[in-house]
Amino acid sequence: MNNASNNSESANPPLGGGGAAEGFPGEIQEVPGGGIVLSKLDDVINWARSNSLWPLTFATSCCGIEYMAVAGAKYDFSRFGFEVARASPRQADVIIIAGTIVNKMGPVLKRLYDQMGDPKYVIAMGACAISGGPFFYNTYSVVKGADHIIPVDVYVAGCPPRPEALLHALISLQEKIKKGMTREQIKSGI
Amino acid sequence: MWSLTNISTGIHDWLIQTFNPTWALIIEMVIAGIAVIGLFAVLGLVLVLMERRVAAWMQIRLGPNRVGPFGLLQSAADTVKLLVKEGMTPDGADKFLFNLAPFIAMMVAMLLMVPIAFAKDFQLWDLNIGVLYVSAVSSIMVISILMAGWASNNKYSLMGAMRSGAQIVSYELSAGLSILTIVVLTGSLNINDIIIAQADGWWIFKGHIPVIISFVIFIIAVTAETNRAPFDLAEAESELTSGFHTEYSGMKFALFFLAEYINVFIVCAIGATLFLGGWMPFHIGNWESFNHVMDYIPSSIWFFGKTFFLIFVIMWFRWTFPRLRIDQLLNLEWRYLLPISMFNLLLATAIAILGWHF
Amino acid sequence: MFRETEIVKDVSSIPPFPQDAVQGGGGAGDLIINVGPQHPATHGVLHLVITLNGETIKKVEPHLGYIHRSIEKMCESLTYRQFIYVTSRMDYLSAHINNHACALCVEKGMQIEVPDRAQVIRVIMDELTRIASHELWWGAMAMDIGAFTPFFHAFREREKINEIMEETCGARLTMNYYVPGGLRADMHPDFQKKVKEFIVLFKRKIDEYDELVTGNIIFINRMKGVGMLSKEDAVSFGCSGPAARGSGVHCDIRKLYPYAVYDKVEFDEILETGCDSLARYMVRIREMKQSVRIIEQLIDHIPEGDFQAKTKAVLKLPKGEFYTRVETARGELGVYIVSEGATTPYRIKFRSPGFSNLSALDSMARGSKLGDLVAMMGTLDLVIPDIDR
Question: Which among B10, C144, C220, C327 has the fewest CB atoms less than 10 Å away?
Fold first, then answer.
């Protein structure tokens, strides 16, 4: 799909810190001469959207258990407002692809993504959703990365990622929304 | 000085002096409308946040506490997001009914605000058939649910809506019969009369056995009527996705979401008014000094305190009990609650005639 | 080296799912609905095509394959030490037990003698995994039935077990701790202390959970008499584990074909004769108590010695076929290796417990209501990647 050609470096200012000296990976810094101009109303709307992300319950395999652990009492993600997990894609904002996507599941994922209402965001959780993960070599049925099917905003590494890593990913998504840097926002020109 | 009664009589007097009576009435109606809508918005935000914090407290975790101080702006963020979310209408849906359903739900909730007495002498309209009005108007809720389920053109929504319709219609009977117990004991359908009759003690204490039984039945019935757990089959997430509001998104979904919480507030307000005395402070018979001390607390605080206590109890049910299956739910109503409430009504009538209550 | 598979380019060329069709004639008034593959319940990607008449189920057809990751084919290109990591991801809730089965099969083929210390620690880890898996099952089952709070209580205990695992094995969920010959590393010095603390806490909690959920009348009414699976049916479908033990079938591999040190510890095999969902539920709750009993017997008596037997650097199984079976939290897992004498197996087949348990769902569900399906699937405790491999 459109991830290989639409490399974000060519069209947009570089995101994230350049190295260890420039800040924490995943943080978005303003670069002089770049950036997108946001109005005050957009700021308020982006603030509201970032603080009320409702995930779609979509867990295919082992990463789903770590997702449930994040929902649990020890690493509580309801502190940020995420616990309202809606089962219907029409009411969800973010789809957290937790688990491997195989060839048979691909069209289902695409259909779910299409049913979600704008604006929608995608987090690819775990090595399987990023690139096929441990099932990369010598498999005939695994889609090597969920971004072959739908555009992804945040990638979380790990097999499975620790709950803190998923929380970091969610907070990075919040930052991206506030700065107007998610794929949805770039596409619609906010 | 801050009592709501003084403020409302003050405004009324000023309006009568400044404008002619017709204009004054119209302006009062507009003010009342704006106040109700404002109360809605505030209540909706407060109840959504309260539900999440209460749930978190019972589930040994913290609820939303990052968005604004103590998470107070969480509901605001949710509302703004829902307002600007894309509102999709499915292709094969009946457009008129699909768009109408959430508005009917809100309309019912607003109409039910009318006879509720928030404080002493602070009622929108003191109907002489207040209780009957409440019972009748709350039955219209079922129409909006059936409309939503039918117009969505989706099997799951339709199944959810049918289940919900059956449930609400059945439980209205028990709720109505338990309200009738109080009416029988008071002898009037007027809400103000019922509250005044509790000046020497709330009905739940004065009316002992039949009133306690009908209070319990009332709480169970209104939990079922507002589709709250353990009777939330219509929205059972693990079975039928989101039930009758699967296809709604954006603003219309926000209206359904809000209407559910406002309904909970209203039925708890009715329960507090009929059984726990409404805005009447806690008086014990003829203990004058104690009653006098209780009178210092403003009546609006009493009303809201009782209502929020009942809301807390209903939220407590949700996070404690598993869900009932549809046939078990209807069984509970028709085979247990209805006969008990009918028998209870007879008992209350006998007690009222013989004067065996306090 | 690897083949890029043909990704589906055009969604419209995929045949649609069986759409709702009101069948006249043969099944007048029947409605066909799809449950899944995306489930709000935490079972994973299972697609059920249910034929309903009103609220009564007439037929349930599971469609599998939505998480088929070609694990068995992948294992043909991995050596005997490498393929163990991939089996952790098969039934990820009993990851240790899966690894144990694979290690046992290779040890059987190469005739490696595992030292006692490794065997005892393996059994302790297995039982801790069983407790963790049953805890998650309990929490998820209660959430499906509608009570949301036990989920958080269950996860609280699971986090304690995960902490213990993380200290010793390095990972919380997919730990590759067993190698053919023993363990990858010795246990952490704090291991015994933490496990003992956990046991003290857990014994108190499990009684509390029993009261909270099992004693609740709504819960019992949802599960009693629901999903009857007779003993003959359980045997003929090949069910194993708690699903079969709830119908009175004597099938605990730890008792029938003991491996590791299971023949040296005392524990009961829990059998119930109710044949309904409540019986299967009680079997699992009591199994958790038995696991605690096993751990208590072993935790203070871990023998000193090596944690890993000396093996060759490159493992080559002799030509032939080898089979081992273990008792996972779901039932009987079998590992079958066909070897041609090379460093990688010729064929590996896993006999998964979930596959056979799922095949009993149709006969259990006929005649029940749609709301009961959730209770039935909950008590079967299906983990779909285990079924699809």
Answer: B10
- C236-274 b/e with 16+ CB inside 10 Å = b? ebbbbbbbbbbbbbebbbbeeeebbbbeebebeebbbeb
- Domain count of the fold of chain A: 1
Is A76 a member of any domain?
yes
| Region of poorest pLDDT, from A76-80, B16-20, C279-283 | B16-20
Q: Is A135 on the interface with B (CB under 8 A)?
A: no
Per-residue pLDDT reduced to its tens digit, B130-183 = 889 988 988 888 888 888 888 877 776 777 788 788 888 999 989 999 999 889
Report the run of H or E that residue A122 belongs to, with start and end. strand A121-125
pLDDT tens-digit map of B89-139: 777 777 888 888 888 988 888 888 888 888 877 788 888 888 899 889 888
- Residue A9 scores a pLDDT above 70: no
Peptide bond into C37 cis (omega under 30): yes
CA gap B81, A45 in Å, rounded: 7
d(CA C176, CA A154): 28
Q: How far apart are CA C50 and CA C34, in angstroms?
A: 6
Contact C272, C182 (CB under 8 A): no
Amino acid at B262: I
Two tokens at A16?
A: 């994230």
The residue behind tokens 């928030």 is B118
Asked if A61 lies within 8 A of C173 by C-beta distance, the reply is: no
> How close is the nearest chain C Cα to the Cα of A14, in Å?
30
Q: Are C389 and C72 in contact (CB under 8 A)?
A: yes
- pLDDT, tens digit (0-9, with 9 covering 90-100), for A106-124: 898 998 898 887 788 999 9
- Tell me, yes or no, if C323 comes closer than 8 A to chain A by beta carbon: no
Residue matched to tokens 């959920």? C213
Whether the CB of A188 is below 8 Å from some CB of chain B: the reply is no
Q: Single out the residue of B96, B137, B106, B128 nearest to residue B259, CA to CA.
A: B106
Please name the amino acid found at residue C52.
L
Tracing tokens 């607003």 back to the chain, one arrives at: B110
**Shortest Cα–Cα distance, C302 to chain A (Å):** 31
**Lowest-confidence segment of A149-158, B27-36, C128-137, C318-327 by average pLDDT:** B27-36
DSSP state of A142: B
ipTM value, please give it.
Answer: 0.83
The answer to the question of residue A172 being in a domain is yes
**Residue A180: Cβ-neighbour burial (10 angstroms; 0-12, 13-18, 19+):** buried
| Residue A11 domain flag | no
Q: What is the residue extent of each domain of chain B?
A: 90-354
Question: Residue A3 — pLDDT band, cuts 50, 70, 90?
Answer: very low
Nearest CB partner across the interface for A138, out of C2, C7, C93 = C2
DSSP reduced 3-state for C156:
helix
Secondary structure of C274-342 in the HEC alphabet? CCCHHHHHHHHHHHHHHHHHHHHHHHCCCCCCCCECCCCCCCCCCCEEEEEEEECCCCEEEEEEEECCC
Residues belonging to chain A = 190
Cis peptide before A119 (omega within 30 of 0): yes
In chain C, the domains with their CATH numbers are 11-63 (no CATH), 71-388 (1.10.645.10)
In a domain, A21, yes or no: no
For residue A179, the enclosing domain spans: 38-188
Closest residue in chain B to residue A46, using alpha carbons only: B81
pTM: 0.86
Which residues does A48 contact at the CB level (< 8 Å), separation at least 6? B76, B77, B78, B79, B80, B81, B84
Instruction: Enumerate neighbours of C (3 or more CB pairs within 8 A).
Output: A, B
